[in-house]
Amino acid sequence: MQAQLQLPGVPRSGLASDIRGVIGLSAPLAMAQLGQIGMITTDVVMVGWLGALELAAMSLGHAAQHVGLLFLLGLASASAPQVAHALGARKPRLMRRAVRQGLWAIITVCLPLMVILWNIAPVLHATGQDPDLVPLTESYVRAAQWSLLPMAGLVVLRSFVSAFGRARIVLIVTLIALPLNALLDYLLIFGSFGFPKLGITGAGLATSLISTFIFALLAMVCARDRQFRRYAIWVRFWKPDWSVYFNVFRIGLPIAVTLLMEVGLFVAGIYLIGAIDPAQVAGTQIALQLASISFMVPLGIGQAATIRIGLAAGRGDPLRMRREGMIAAGLGLAFMAAMAILFWAGRYGLAGLFLEPADALAVSSLAFGVLFLRVAAIFQLFDGLQVIALAALRGMNDTRTPMILAFVAYWLIGFPTAWLLAFPAGLEGLGVWIGLATALATAAILLSWRFLHLTRC
After folding, report:
1. Rg (CA), the chain
2. How many angstroms separate the first and last alpha carbons of the chain?
3. CA angle, 79 as apex, 320 and 95 as ends, to 5°?
4. Nearest C-alpha neighbor of 43 from the set 65, 28, 70, 73
5. What CA–CA distance (Å, rounded) separates 387 from 380?
6. I need a surface site. Which of 9, 140, 183, 375 has the fewest CB within 10 A?
7. d(CA 62, CA 175)
8. 8 A C-beta contact, residue 359 and residue 411
9. What distances in angstroms separate CA 227 from CA 2, 166, 221, one per listed residue?
């Protein structure tokens, strides 16, 4: 038993060893995130082949569902620091309880959330969306919402296996699912090989089926793998542990609210643009999808930082906590600088991957996609830094103050800037994107300052 309680992924000394440790843990996590966003990108590309109207409807539906998903992911993310702290402090029973009650918490929230999403049409009408988009968006959301619970559950299980330095398992599972998702998309969207032609609904259904498959596969690994089965996370799963359950909400709710404030700003931006022009919505989806792809790497680095800083916190090692955070930030900034150059220099070719200029709406959508990618290139560094700083603070169980800082950045600064530039200043979608960039820059500065303040020696 002693061997399994060693602290995987936390080298004992040396800067070079720490850098290798961060890269070793973050690389498979980042690649797994890229695989997951690859599935979403496949959905977007294939729906784009249906037409710009369907792509705009998917953008609205994905934005609405993403709000609920992010709330669930915030709760699920509370498992990562708790599991890491328990492993760092050599408390295996607490690890098991953290995993179980993390799953309990997301089940509690997911069920009423799905009821809300099922009735998304009145919300779309109330926010002034194009009437032609509403039935398509509703159909997509009703098919895709079944993915919420397995996707959030996957985050809990990922925290468990990653604490042991075995994040490659998550990557392998994702790589298995990636081609299956593309195949299901093709079969269900276009009705190939005797399958029903479901259009945009087929994309949502494929997402739900693949998400369930990924969760089931990782759950089986946790139950049968020699190292993991000793913790018996599925044995007496029905048994409550109320202190840990409510601790998930204590830690996770601020994380969830923080994520909601960030993603909610982007959703609000999409809906502001939706009230202007469907072509600008489709262009926004193109730029956001590409920005989401690049974002997966610093997100994976941040997930590794949460685990490694959590392990260091469990051991009571503040110097290592600061070092781990700085290494993660440096790696993230280097990658996002490369992405900023790619977005700026290759914006025409990248945007052209999503739509064929078959009609006036598609041509206009591509033009807006190219324009918005210029702004996305500018905020790459800020986006990477803010997510890593936030993850580093999460590893220290510091979640309430980051929530306040996020509110300031996104809703006291970002949203007013987006609205003022879009409407009174007349910049429309471009103004919204400038507001988003302003919010991310503010968040990056505030959250980085918070981490440096807490880890000063």
Report:
1. 21
2. 35
3. 85
4. 65
5. 11
6. 183
7. 23
8. no
9. 12, 10, 10
Q: What is the dihedral of CA 185, 186, 190, 195, to 10 degrees?
A: -90
Q: Take residue 288 and report the two structure tokens written for it.
A: 């956001």
pLDDT, one tens digit per residue, over 402-441 is 999 999 999 999 999 999 999 999 899 999 999 999 999 9
Nearest-10 crossing angle of helices 200-224, 134-144: 20
Burial (0-12, 13-18, 19+ Cβ within 10 Å), 367: middle
What parts of the chain have a pLDDT lower than 50?
1-11
- Give the CA distances from residue 352 to residues 39, 48, 186, in Å, rounded to whole numbers and listed in that order: 19, 11, 20
Q: What is the DSSP string of 73-93?
A: HHHHHTHHHHHHHHHHTT-HH
> Are 144 and 61 contacting, i.e. CB atoms less than 8 angstroms apart?
yes
Q: Which burial class, exposed, middle or buried, applies to 393 when counting CB atoms under 10 A from its CB (0-12, 13-18, 19+)? A: buried
Cα 332 to Cα 329: distance, rounded to the nearest angstrom: 5
- Note the pTM of the prediction, 2 decimals: 0.77
Which residues are CB-neighbours of 392 under 8 A, at least 6 positions away? 302, 305, 306, 309, 324, 325, 328, 329, 451
Instruction: Please count the CA atoms within 13 angstroms of the CA of 116 that sit on its side-chain side.
Output: 13
Decide: residue 280, CB within 10 A, 0-12 exposed, 13-18 middle, 19+ buried.
Answer: buried
DSSP-derived 3-state class of residue 165: coil
| Residue 210: strand, helix, or coil | helix
Residue 111 structure tokens: 């069920």
At residue 294's C-alpha, the angle toward residues 329 and 47, to 5°, is 155
Q: How far apart are CA 393 and CA 414, in angstroms?
A: 22
- Do 9 and 307 touch, CB atoms closer than 8 A? yes
22-40 confidence digits (pLDDT tens): 888 888 888 887 887 788 8
52 near 362, Cβ under 8 Å?
yes
Task: Provide the token pair at 83.
Answer: 């599991």
Task: Yes or no: say if 189 and 147 are a contact pair by the CB < 8 Å rule.
Answer: no
Q: Which two tokens stand for residue 267?
A: 């959703």
* 426 φ, ψ (degrees, to nearest 5): 75, 15
Token pair 């009437």 in the structure block, residue: 131
